[in-house]
Amino acid sequence: MSTDVEHEKRALRAELRERRQLLSDAQRATAASGIREQLDALIEAHSAESISCFLSAMTEPGTREFVAAAVQRGIRVLLPVTRADGLLDWAVADDTDETSEGLFGLPEPTGEVLGPIAVNDVDLMIIPAAAVDSTGMRLGWGRGYFDKTIGSMEKCPPVYAVIYDSEVLESLPREVHDQPVTGIVTPTRTLTLSPSRP
C-alpha cells in the first residue's frame, strides 16, 4: 500500500525530472565542466586511488568527462551495472567510451563485470541523486540500488551525491531504508553534510 511519503517523493521526483529536461545544452556543458572540477578536487582531498562513480545520462549533471580524466590519471573507477535482483554489479572503467543500455535505459559500462562486493574496496563513492537535503538525506530515483548498496557495506567510505545547485533542498521526505550521504557535489561547490560513517 502506498504511503503519503511515497506520494510526496513521487511528486518531487517528477518535478525535479521536468526541471532537468528544461536545461539547455550550454547549461549542461557548463555544469559538466564544473562537476569535473569539483570532483577532481574531492579526489585530491581524500587522496582517493580507487573510487566508484556513474555514467551520467543526458539530463544528469555530467560525470563522463571526469571519469575519462580520472582513468587517464591512473585512478581505478568502478561503474555500476544494474541487476534484476536490485543489487549492483560493478565494472572497471577503461579509456573507451563504449556503453550499453542498462535495465532502465541508462548508460552502463561494457567491460568485465565484477560482483556487488567489488565496491567494498573503494576510497570514495560518487553516486547519482534527484536531490539532497541539508542533513545529507538523499532522494534517489526510486529503485533503491544505492540505498541497498550503502546500507549493506560493512565499512562505507565517504559517499557524495552529484546534483545541480537547485537540488540542494532544506528537507526531504524520508523512509526507514533511505541512506544519508556524506556530502554533495554540484557544478559550483562541494558540501560535506553528515559525518563519515564509522
UniProtKB/TrEMBL annotation:
Its EC number is 6.3.3.2. GO terms for molecular function: 5-formyltetrahydrofolate cyclo-ligase activity. It catalyses: (6S)-5-formyl-5,6,7,8-tetrahydrofolate + ATP = (6R)-5,10-methenyltetrahydrofolate + ADP + phosphate. SUPFAM superfamilies: NagB/RpiA/CoA transferase-like. Its cofactor is Mg(2+). It holds the Pfam family 5-FTHF_cyc-lig. Keywords: ATP-binding, Ligase, Magnesium, Metal-binding, Nucleotide-binding. Belongs to the 5-formyltetrahydrofolate cyclo-ligase family. This is 5-formyltetrahydrofolate cyclo-ligase. It comes from Microbacterium profundi.
